[in-house]
Design a protein that fits this description.
With 169 residues, this protein is mainly β. The protein is 12% helix and 44% strand. Strands 1, 2, 3, 4, 5, 6 and 7 form a seven-stranded antiparallel beta sheet that branches.
Length: 169
């Protein structure tokens, strides 16, 4: 079944999932469990970007490209959150968020699952759209402390690959 619903941000849920069992995913699970990060609360302004680098081939004597070939695919995005407790910073830095590391440190890896379901549609006609970004690592973390607005933290991330699923009950 194809999803034809129109969604709002309030129809979405963000979860951190851990499919593999590597030292990096075990560290992410430890942090996620300690901070009850699934689902991720107080999130806003979630953005996921998929960039496909197309290579144009231009023949001599032609002004327009005669072929477009797919190149590298890059997946990135951002999440803002109005709930500051150190969890996202620890997912960026691992143990280096609590102690100074003399050498290299483990960088937690996890999947981000974005689920959308329209609560205004009957259960038998409902379709859930799920986007999963696999092999995610946080790249940057920032913290905004404005004078008269909500305190926000935000992270940017990169992922290895992305999958999408539309599922009917």
């Amino acid at each position: 079944m194809v999803n034809t619903s129109v969604f709002r941000g309030s129809d979405g849920v963000i979860e951190f999932a851990l499919a593999e069992t590597t030292p990096e995913t075990k560290k992410a699970k430890e942090i996620s469990d300690a901070y009850s990060l699934s689902p991720v609360g107080r999130a806003t302004n979630v953005e996921v970007k998929v960039e496909s680098q197309l290579k144009a081939f231009h023949e001599l004597g032609h002004r327009y490209a005669t072929d477009l070939r797919p190149g590298n695919v890059n997946i990135s995005g951002t999440i803002a959150r109005a709930y500051i407790n150190g969890a996202l910073l620890k997912l960026l830095l691992g143990d280096a968020a609590t102690t100074q590391s003399a050498g290299t440190f483990l960088s937690p890896t996890f999947d981000i699952v974005l689920k959308l379901e329209n609560p205004g549609v009957s259960q038998e006609n409902s379709v859930t759209s799920t986007i999963t970004i696999h092999g995610v690592k946080f790249e940057n973390w920032s913290y905004q402390l404005p004078e008269d607005d909500f305190v926000m933290e935000s992270v940017s991330f990169k992922g290895i690959w992305i999958s999408v699923e539309d599922k009917a009950p």
